[in-house]
User: What shape does this take?
Amino acid sequence: MPRSAGPQPHVVVVSSLFPSCRQPGAGLFVRERVFRVGRRMPLAVVAPTPWFPMQRFVGRLWPGFRPGAPRHESQQSRDVWFPRFFSVPAVLKRLDGIAMALGAFSRLKRLKNQGRLDVIDAHFGFPDGYAAGLLGRWLDVPVTITMRGTEQRHAADPVLRGYLRSALLRADRVFAVSESLRQVAISLGIDPQKVRVVGNGVDLDRFHPVAQQPAREQIGLAPADRVLISVGGLVERKGFHRVIECLPQLRQEFPTLKYLVVGGPSPEGDWTEQLKTLSHSLGLDECVRFLGPVAADDLHRVLSAAEVFVLATRNEGWANVFLEAMACGLPVVTTDVGGNREVVSADALGELVPFGDKDQLLSAIRRALSRPWDKGLLRGHAEANTWDRRIDVLESEFRQLHREVRASRPAAPIPSTPAR
Assistant: This one.
């Protein structure tokens, strides 16, 4: 598709979930989209980082707790700043939005003064989108918010629901990575015309099938093994433990079954030891293989070693990893939550089961291991959901928004301090 003509806006991304040298696996799905947009227009990132005075002491007691970030990094030739904002763990979360805005204000003001800020592109409705709405008002620039999955939980929270609604109302554009999230926005009273579904995409150059046997040899699997795989942060929400609990029964029918667990700690937490303890208690030490985090450039080889991708997740917005698995020829068994039905959108792509129903999860995995799958069709579904298609839409939206603002808003002075 040809690039959009017209003025070229400078986009500044605001997201508290973004990779750094201290948390290289955080928010990779955000960075994937952001830097692809950055190939088409000027872009910088401001990733506010939570902080409070006792944080270093708490970090000594719980290694991995809020590791922080450097002040600045250059990633793929893009500036990424990590300003701190005050946030006490587990309490007063309703204040995180304004605290994040105050923490990021000076950096965004500098960027505005340098002519490097025309549109704020926030990821997650709260606190990031709420903060972006305030920053847009203080700096007189338009704001977009991308809903990524946490919004469903926040919309059900009696304290945070109003903050999320305020954020979405202030935004000039709202992108939802799935129709299910678009419906969350509409349920909050947001104009349906303002909310557009723009799902995540897949990089087909990075994710493609390779020969199964060499892929298996690299990780010590036998040709006769039956292989399941899950990929994601090792946290409760992703449901690795729900799959592990099915394995003893599955092994009665598939005695050579192996389960590959790919992933590590994430900002949501770290269930590594709980998962290993559960696996050991069920006598699955030889069945479950904890491979740790796998670099994106190598993940297609591990996926190609498996037969079925499974994720018994509690909630997802739009799981990129489903498309990545399909691009490598794997069907997907997952829970019917969030946007999962929109990715696994046909029986030929996999199976959906009710969340929390172990018997149906067990049956779906058993069927997936027993039936033939059309790998060409699975790959074709991934090919219909490439990143380029998504970025075409986003580029057009950013340029259109910039044109609208230039036509309707006179230049306004930047306030010396934020309005309270």
Remarks:
- DSSP finds 17 helices and 16 strands in the chain.
- The mean pLDDT is 91.
- The longest strand covers residues 226-231.
